[in-house]
Amino acid sequence: MNNRIIMKAGREKSLLRRHPWIFSGGIAKVVGKPKHGETVDVYSEKGEWLAVAAFSPTSQIRARVWSFTQGRHINKDFFVERIETAHRLREREVCPYTNAYRIVAGESDGLPGVTIDRYDDVMVVQLLSAGAAVWEEAIYDALVELFPDCTVYERSDVDVRGKEGLPKVTGPRRGRVDIPPVIIEEYGVKLAVNVRSGHKTGYYLDQRDARKKVQQYSKGKTVLNCFSYTGGFGIYAALAGAHRVINVDVSEEALEMARYNETLNPIRPGVIEYLKADVFEQLRRFVDEGETFDVIVLDPPKFVDSKQSLNRACRGYKDINRLAASLLNPGGILMTFSCSGLLSPELFQKVVADGCLDAKVDLKIIDRTQQAPDHPIGIHYPEGWYLKGLVLKR
Q: Is 339 a catalytic residue?
């Protein structure tokens, strides 16, 4: 291979620790003229071979490592092997409980920039890096080889593609062209997922275990489910015997799907209510009206897109947690989450504590949550840990 990256002296240390990212500032020289997403060998300043990676000339992450094994060829067989290995892990960890799970979690599964979520027989793929985009056909072919009856749909419609010099793209890639909402099942709960236009790849698979956890606090209780999307936490709470559930979301489309999800499950009529509203504004209205709840779920979208937005995001997290704490009955439970990877668990706890302090409410942490096990965190890739949650009791 003629195209090579030569690292600056001392900047190979992260690669020797098996971290898969190579930043532009750590590169001394690029030998040859590698194209967008092309495979390159990576060497230390002393000429020692380090890795084989995908080159991305427009990104601060200038290359992402495919393999730390010298001589490893990147081709369809490579993707078959990596996807099969990743799926074996899920077969043990999550398949007994659901037909919807993440098969490939990017760098944590040795496939940088590749996300593959399974919804029954539909595989939804996000390709977020230049290297992943170059090998898209091989990735689709590998999926069909491993899962012959599957449909493959691409959802590469996220802003981060722009940093890699890639346009947003979506659409069917293998199998069926017209894909109706897919009915998934997790822990016996049925949920409809729109893989074509739903959030992320269609649903928040990473919150599966947290949704189940809400059931242990919900029997006979009033439950406020904020940023409810298609109602998952509310469905679980109602099935556990909640007295009253309110789903709040700003999207009427999401609430319509939530209403449909209610019909898929044996829920007593009238238990679940739906409010189309901005959550921040609705929480303030509840405070003004003197409304209180036994269980409150705060599962907002990502507030932090960059380090520059961290302070603003912390103000947002503090505000909603302050309001929620004010609305919590004595003995009540607040389940609060952040899916912002740039917000550390320590900072998240501090922000929530500051919100409780302003609300003059003393809460205790009784449990913590993180992403479900089909979203593993590579031991050499701490950035893979993004979702964190606190279960607090008043």
A: yes
